[in-house]
Amino acid sequence: MSLLDTPILNRIRWVNRSNIVSSLEFVQDLIVICLCIGLFGFMVLQLRDMFMSLLPPLDLPNVTADILFILILVELFRLLIIYLRERRVSIGVTVEVSIVSALREVIVNGILEIPWLQVLMTCLFLGTLALLLVVRVWLPPTFEGINPEEQLSQRRRSELQNDSQQKHSIPNGYSAEN
């Protein structure tokens, strides 16, 4: 039995970085799928509660709050679906969810009922989110099929391959293999 066939070495080969990363990504996908299923079930329950609140006596602020809450849940569901498809969190959807959530709180509580400092902080928060929505347009699209690290890595591999071929060539133009 040689040293290369030992069970310890076989285990070490299995525990390499790519196996660990793919296993963790699989577990992460399972967690996100469970979140999607749970969020979908919660949306159905909230929708049922909203329809029940439409029955007389009609409480308009409560109905408005329910509708906005369901919109927030739909956007969160969309965010999870985008993550499952593209393995990234969408900045735009995240900012939109945050804006709708902040506005929902202001609408539900009433602008006159909220302390002025909290209104000021909410305005600052909404302004920052709006700025982020505008700035994200100029961010480079690194996740839409463009991976700068992979492109640099591929370029470096081709340079190394070209250097290797030049070292093995003979001055009169024939390859060392011929």
Automatic annotation (TrEMBL):
InterPro entries, per the entry: P_starv_induced_PsiE-like
Transmembrane annotation, as ranges: 26-47, 67-84, 118-139
Region described as Disordered: 154-178
Keyword Transmembrane (UniProt): yes
Pfam family, one: PsiE
Keywords: Cell membrane, Membrane, Transmembrane, Transmembrane helix
Main location: membrane
GO cellular component: plasma membrane
Compartment annotation: Cell membrane
Membrane topology: Multi-pass membrane protein
Keyword Transmembrane helix: yes
Protein name as it appears in the record: Phosphate-starvation-inducible E
